[in-house]
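Q: Given only this backbone (428 positions), what sequence would you predict?
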């Protein structure tokens, strides 16, 4: 008998249909994708994951971009921008770039390979659910594709300054991004959780006893008030809030704990930092003794003046419009929860999914600065250094991503249902 599932975006309890390859299962109330019907989701993802390892080695270890200016040359690698930020005194910004571009992409590839390879063993290791839980949590913070796009924007700035040479790491990074996109497109996380349960690597599988004569393997009763949906692996558990999920080990809560309060705090902090992020310069460009500081809007204007309208539009949307949209959208959703507004629930839920997905692309401007400070270090001839605006803007992006992660869209549906739903800020 098909099992039950709680929609992670609207909280509706649903009976899941049998798995059919190629057919995705969506929530009828909010259109959230509950399960992807991928054919061979584990084998294809394993093959693509193995292909990502050598591409990652080329992308990180080989020269990325080279710059020649009046007989002087300088090469950079993917991680050189983090070193440049550290040399300018922005250690937190250096750590963010190193994690998002170098460390977390590799860690996520290794975690996926460890889980998929472990499932092929006769006795899979017991820690596979923990590894896969971390793989899912780190997904939004691994940003090689955002860095690649930032490098493209940087290239358009550098060609006007000196001769630019594209190194093998740039091609390796491009192929890595394509391989990761293909791996994610063919991957079905829910299939991994179900495979872990079938192989007995979860507490739920170990505690499950075979049904006796005349007994059903699963109950057909409607889920009761003690059923709690796991936010990580989406198992609907018969448990009290605060207990551990028997499949993935994550803490169970009916709603994200203190969701509204945490989201408000993060949104307000990001809104405060948004002002200095756009007011102060993100970098200082000096060429042959001339130049000065550049702000985010100043870079957009420069692209417009030089005829790069598409890039100007992309940078404006990613660095100015998207952060404002995230702040305004999250604030509107929080106010809707507080005032128990029942209108446009499906549209607001779609807006939340869009904010959650688009937030990481605001890091483009930070990565643009990272590529430039890594290459243009020619002393009195030409030099680009990072400024406080870049650190403030990176903080805005990180805070808005954390705010979107802290917000629980199910609160909007609870509030619309009236006092019977879980109260705002109950943390359960």
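A: Predicted residues:
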């Amino acid at each position: 008998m098909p099992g039950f599932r709680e929609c992670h975006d609207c909280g509706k309890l649903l009976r899941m249909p049998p798995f059919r390859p190629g057919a995705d299962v969506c929530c009828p109330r909010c259109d959230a994708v509950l399960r992807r019907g991928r054919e061979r989701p584990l084998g294809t993802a394993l093959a693509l994951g193995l292909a990502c390892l050598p591409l990652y080695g080329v992308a990180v270890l080989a020269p990325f971009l080279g710059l020649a200016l009046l007989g002087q040359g300088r090469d950079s690698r993917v991680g050189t921008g983090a070193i440049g930020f550290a040399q300018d005194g922005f250690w937190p910004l250096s750590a963010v770039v190193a994690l998002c571009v170098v460390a977390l992409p590799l860690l996520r590839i290794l975690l996926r390979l460890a889980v998929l390879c472990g499932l092929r063993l006769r006795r899979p290791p017991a820690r596979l659910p923990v590894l896969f839980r971390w793989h899912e949590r780190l997904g939004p913070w691994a940003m090689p594709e955002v860095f690649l796009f930032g490098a493209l924007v940087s290239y358009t700035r550098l060609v006007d300054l000196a001769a630019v040479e594209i190194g093998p790491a740039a091609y390796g990074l491009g192929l890595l991004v394509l391989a990761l996109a293909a791996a994610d497109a063919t991957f079905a996380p829910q299939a991994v959780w179900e495979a872990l349960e079938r192989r007995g690597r979860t507490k739920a599988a170990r505690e499950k006893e075979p049904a006796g004569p005349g007994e059903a393997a699963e109950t057909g009763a409607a889920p009761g008030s003690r059923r709690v949906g796991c936010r990580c692996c989406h198992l609907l558990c018969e448990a009290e809030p605060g207990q551990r999920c028997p499949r993935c080990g994550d803490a169970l809560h009916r709603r994200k704990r203190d969701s509204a309060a945490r989201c408000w705090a993060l949104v307000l902090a990001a809104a405060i930092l948004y002002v200095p992020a756009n007011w102060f310069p993100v970098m200082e460009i000096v060429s042959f003794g001339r130049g000065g500081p550049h702000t985010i809007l100043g870079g957009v204007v420069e692209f417009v003046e030089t005829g790069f309208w598409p890039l100007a539009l992309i940078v404006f949307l990613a660095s100015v419009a998207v952060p404002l949209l995230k702040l305004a959208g999250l604030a509107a959703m929080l106010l809707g929860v507080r005032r128990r507004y029942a209108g446009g629930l499906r549209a607001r839920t779609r807006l939340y999914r869009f904010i959650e997905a688009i937030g990481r692309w605001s890091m483009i401007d930070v990565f643009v600065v990272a590529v430039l400070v890594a290459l243009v270090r020619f002393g009195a001839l030409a030099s680009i250094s990072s400024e406080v605006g870049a650190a403030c803007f990176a903080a805005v992006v990180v805070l808005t991503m954390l705010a979107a992660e802290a917000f629980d869209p199910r609160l909007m549906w609870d509030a619309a249902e009236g006092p019977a739903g879980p109260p705002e800020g109950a943390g359960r």
